Amino acid sequence: MKDRLGRLGxxxxxxxxxxxxxxxAMLCGIAGLGVDLGLVYLEKRRIQSAVDLAALAAARASDxxxxxxxxxxxxxxxxxxxxTVTPGTYVPDRAIPAASRFTPGSSAPNAIRIRLANTVxxxxxxxxxGPSSFVVSGDATARxxxxxxxxxxxxxxxxxxxxxxxxxxxxxxxxVSLSLMDYRALAALRVDALGFLRSAAPRIGLxxxxxxxxxxxxxxxxxxxxxxxxxxxxxxxxAAARASLNALTAALxxxxxxxxxxxxxxxxxIGSSPxxxxxxxxxxxxxxxxxxxAFLANGGRQVGLDLGTAVxxxxxxxxxxxxxxxxxxxxxxxxxxxxxxxxxxxxxxLWIPGPVGLVDLYLPxxxxxxxxxxxxxxxxxxxxxxxxxxxxxxxxxxxxxxxIGAIPANALDLGTPRPAPTPVTILKAPLLSVTGVSAxxxxxxxxxxxxxxxxxxxxRIRTVSTTTLVTSVTASLLANLDxxxxxxxxxxxxxxxxxxxxxxxxxxxxxxxxxxxxxxxxGVQLGAADVAVTGTRCGGAVLVQ
Length: 545
Fold this sequence. Notes:
545 residues; 30% strand; alpha+beta; 8-stranded antiparallel beta sheet; membrane; Putative Flp pilus-assembly TadG-like N-terminal domain-containing protein
C-alpha cells in the first residue's frame, strides 16, 4: 500500500493540461481579437468607399444632401443621423495647407464634404475585457469639376506679311513666304489641341499613354505643322489655310529643329487622362501655335531682324527682341486656374528721312511689357440648359513701358532691372546735334469678362486694354520727347528742334504699323491682352484632399 501511494505521489502525468488550457484560451482570445479588428478594418474601408462615392454624387448634383443620402443608402447605410453633409468652397491652391483649402458654408459652394460614422460590435474582444464596440468613421471632400479652357496672347490686326515672313524665317531658320491672305486664313483655322496630342503620340513613339506623357515629348517642326492640319476643324479649314500649312511644312522639311510640346500646350486637369479618352475639344488657333512654336524653337534667345527698307516711310528699320512666350492655353482647369504671359523686351531702331537740308534721323524705341494674367473666376453649367453656359475671367494687363533713349548693351536682358532712358543723339550734323529722351508708362488694370455659350463655341477673342489709346503710341512718345540742341543755332532763321519734331511726327504712322506688326506676331500688344474661353467640361466631380 505504501509503495502504491508513493508511486501515485510521484506520478506527474497530466500536469501539462492546465498550461495547455491557459495557452489555448490566450490563442483563442488573440484570434478573436484579430477577427474583431479585421471586421473594424473592413468596415473602415467600406465606409471610406461609400463616402467617396457619396461625395462625388453630391458634388455633381443640384441637391447635394439628397444625392449623398441616396448614394449611402444604395451602399447599405440606412442611418441618416450618422451622416453629415457640409457644402463649402474649395480653393485648389498648393500654397494653402491641404487642411485649410476647404471652407464650410458659402453663398456659391463649389465643393461638399461628407462624414459618416458607424458602430461595429465586437464578438470576442469584450470577453477578454476589451470594448464591446468600435466607432468607425470616414470623410471625403469632392469638388465640382466645372472646367474651362482659356487662352491669353496676341492680336493679329494689322499684321504685315513682309515683316511676319522675315521674323518667322529668322526664328525657324528657313525661308517663309506667306501672303497676307495666308496669314489671315491661318488665323481663322481652329485646331483641337487634344486631337493634336492624340496624333502626336505615335509620332513621338508613344502608345497607351496620357496627355501629360505626350506633352513631355518633342516634335520636329515639320511634323508639328503637318499635325496642325490633321487636327484642324473641318468647318474652319479653308483651302488657303491648308495650302499655307503644306507650304510651311515643305519649307521646314530640311531643318532638324524640334519644339518641346510642354512649353506650348497643357491639358490642365485632364492631363492624367489617357489619350484614347475623347471629349469636348480644346480649341487653339493655328497661327498662334505656329508663332509660339517658332519662338520656342529659337530657345528664348535674342532675335535680331534687319528689315532694311521694307517699311514704307522709313529709310531703314532694325528689330531686336527677347521673348519666350506667345499665345498660351490653360488646358481644362477649375475655378482659380490662371494663365500669364511672360515679360518681354523689344528694341526697335529706326532711321527716318531728315528735314530738308539736314541728315537723316536715328530713333531707338525700347519696349518692355510686364505680364498679363487671366484667372478663371467662375464656370456656370446649367443642368437643364447646356446652351446657357458661361465662364468669367478676371484679366489683369500689366504695365507697359516705352522709351526713346540711349540703349545700353544689356537692355534686353530680362533678368536685369529695366534701364532708365538717357538722352540719345537723334540728329548729328556738322556743328549741330539734337538729342532727345522720352518715356511713356501704361498703368495696370483688372477687368472681368464673361463669355457666353456662343463666345465659347466660336472661340471669340476679346481684348482687355490697360488704357484707351485714343492716339497712336508713337505720337504719345513724341509728345513727351525732350529735345535739346547742341552746337550751331540760328534763331529766327532755322529751328532745328522744330524741324526734327516735324520729321518725327510725319513718321509716326509707319512706326506704329511696324510696332504692332512685330508685337502681334510675338504674341503681345501694348497695354492690352487678348483672351478667349475655348471650351468647358461640366457635370463632373473630383475628390480632393
